[in-house]
Write a structure and sequence with these properties.
Elements: E1 6-11, E2 17-22, H1 56-64, H2 66-76, H3 83-86, H4 90-102, H5 108-117, H6 119-132
Antiparallel strand pairs: 1-2
Length: about 140
């Protein structure tokens, strides 16, 4: 998309006129004010699913204390600590929530596959992602 420049004359508070070059026009307001993000994310996860060496502490917690890490994830995403143990599919929901919060590409189907077949790795990845997003 080509950038067009436009020169506009504006009057300052003191009454003097100045020429201002406008490089970027204001963006159009979306039609649906209720939608806060696009359906498809705009980025990938900041760490890989099997990127266990990037955060050894989280990896050890995921291996030895998975339930503690699940509880921490639920709390960090605004849910109750018992959510992973009381809600069917809680890690799928948590993963989808983190993807939405971070604008991460993916789908509910992929979330389901990853959390059902690689749950410890998925929980560790979600924990690292929240840390990288600055959510403690």
């Amino acid at each position: 998309m080509a950038t067009t420049e436009q020169t506009v004359t504006v009057q300052s508070a003191g009454g003097t006129e100045q020429n201002v070059v406008v490089v970027q026009q204001p963006a159009a307001v979306p039609d649906n004010q209720l939608m806060v993000t696009e359906i498809k994310g705009h980025r990938e996860w900041s760490t890989g699913l099997f990127d266990v060496c990037s955060d050894v502490t989280t990896s050890l917690l995921g291996f030895f204390c998975l339930n503690y890490l699940k509880c921490t994830l639920a709390s960090r995403t605004g849910e109750g600590c018992l959510m992973p143990f009381c809600v069917t599919g809680a890690m799928i929901i948590t993963r989808s929530r983190i993807r939405t919060m971070g604008g991460i590409e993916g789908s509910a189907f992929k979330d389901c596959i990853v959390t059902n077949f690689c749950e410890p790795c998925a929980v560790c990845q979600m924990h690292r992602e929240l840390s990288n997003m600055g959510i403690n």
